[in-house]
Amino acid sequence: MQLIFGSASPFVRKVRIALEILGLGERVTLVPVSTTPVAPAEELAAINPIAKIPVLVTASGSRIYGSAVIADYLQTLADAPVLIPASGDARWEVLHRQALIDGMTEAAVMSRYEQLRPAELRWAPWVDAQMEKVWRGLEAMEADSPALDGEPTIAEIALACLLGYLDFRFADRPWREDFPELARWFGVFDQRPEMVLTAPV
């Protein structure tokens, strides 16, 4: 298998951490690509029409887009640990939490893209509105922080990638003081070898 990736993407990082936790890392070749929303890499657009990462190319040559779908596919290749339950209420609980966190992450990424525009074209209210989504989501995660303890699911992995991305791209918006329980949890989770291996650069 091949994973088309960029090391700074929190969505790519989620997939890479899932690969390592599931013991599938050695079965995947990492293929780096340099791409931006306004200058998509031709080789990426050739395999994903919307030119977004990550993309997983399976052993049979199929292409799977999107971190959530890729993670679900990877779980089918490993019986344990269970990052995404196969059925029942537990599955939908994990998937709906992942969807919330992915939405928060997308908002943070959109804010980052806005900051890359020429200064005269940046729209500060847009950035503020996107980051308000992130903060509201963090408030929900803080209120539900006891659910984070225990063996990680794909939702906890997604949350760790979001918090790491905030540290990486938004040092001017510190979050730990507002969310002490998330800070406590992340301080431990961030020391996992999978997190160290996939730290954004």
From TrEMBL:
Name of the protein in its database record: Glutathione S-transferase domain protein
Sample GO molecular function, one term: transferase activity
Record carries keyword Transferase: yes
Limits of the GST N-terminal domain: 1-82
Xref: PANTHER family: GLUTATHIONE S-TRANSFERASE OMEGA, PTHR43968
Pfam families recorded: GST_C_2, GST_N_2
Record's keyword annotation contains Ligase: no
